[in-house]
Amino acid sequence: MLKDELPKIVTQTVPGPKAAAVLARRRQAIPDAIGTIYPTVIKRGEGAMFEDVDGNYFLDWVGGVGVLNIGYSQPEVVKAVQDQAGNYFHAMANIVTHEGYVALAEKLNAIAPVKGDKKRSFFINSGAEADENAVKVAKAYTKRPNIIVFSGAFHGRTLMTMAMTAKKAYARGMGPFPDGVYRAEFPYLYRKPAGLSDDEALEFYMDSLKEVFMYSSPAEYVAAIVVEPLQGEGGFIPAPIPWIKALRKVCDDNGILLIADEVQTGWCRTGRMLATKYWKEAGCPPDIIATAKSIGGGVPLGAVVAREEIMESVPAGVIGGTFGGNALACASALKVIEIMERDHLADRALEIGKKVCARYEQWKQKYDVIGDYRGLGAMLGLEFVHDKAGKEPYPELVTAVIKEAAQHGLIMENCGIYDNVIRFLCPLVVTDAQLDAGLDILEQAILTCTK
């Protein structure tokens, strides 16, 4: 079965002839702004593997950018969606109640580690929608106009979430943006100010937040602070728990809500069902969680969950939407969560992370171009530099390594504020043999591209 296969290239180069023909059609039919550097056209996928139209087998370390934690074509999920499709595709939640929406909200309320006992959830279609709706909920509850986000943050491509996103390559020419979005420094400890210990650096980053209150928006006008438990586009940088504790105290002292953007970190990826479980275990849970991606197993779905008093402050008509909580998506999500809990995929993420980090540590000792690796569970970043001493980012090498690895059946993606980090988002159903094969391909690509 494909899900048990190893990477295998049967064409002389990739793309093969069939894939090249489809990619040529793509260039004529689709805007260049929706670009791709990957020489593949998928035919079918199973587990962590996919086959292209030329018969090449690829190991996927991107997983639809964090969408496929459960893997491609999980049979039980496929059947759940098929069964639902046999009854009806869609019933708008404002018009006709379907039980899947209710059951999924009940499940999310039960497992989401937000502050408070009684919770409520609602559903939308994507991560950007989840983040934007979380902000709306916070503004409704606090009656305040402003929010604070962070350097390195990525929250989406709607107008509001483009304003929230740090890297303006994602928003070139799209202004003016909504007012009331202010930015503090995220604790990127690998690139902390020279001479500071980690504890001193965390004080430096908290001072950055205080400067926002001083120079941009007084705390009493801030509705929410929005933070990723582990930054995705920013370079796979975990938010240190002591820093989160400090944020939680600032929020509590000033009537500000703490929003966790769990779009990419959620659904077993970090070794917990939701990464904010780490926060709750440390006594600093968020007030609101926005999530998406792997909750639907590949069917578009986003969600927002908060304690009841927050959710019930929202005026009628402010949240919702035509396709939010679509019946097919809810059926998929319910089965995805069932399988994740039953098969202990959060524990599997920890096992995968341990195995990958062991190799990354070896490379860090062997290769001067490996500056840092970090992450939580199986959400890991490998940062490339020209040399360890100077830490100068090396995005050209990352681009070359990704292209070289693709020629041998491994698909990876970069990230980071300097585009110099390779992200690891492999489906959590990857086999150990596949993981070893992928690590071997990546190491050989590093060697090839640094000769």
From TrEMBL:
CDD domains: OAT_like. Coiled coil: none annotated. The keyword Cell wall biogenesis/degradation does not apply. Pathway: Amino-acid degradation; 4-aminobutanoate degradation. Keywords: Aminotransferase, Pyridoxal phosphate, Transferase. It catalyses: (S)-3-amino-2-methylpropanoate + 2-oxoglutarate = 2-methyl-3-oxopropanoate + L-glutamate; 4-aminobutanoate + 2-oxoglutarate = succinate semialdehyde + L-glutamate. Its EC number is 2.6.1.19, 2.6.1.22. This is (S)-3-amino-2-methylpropionate transaminase.
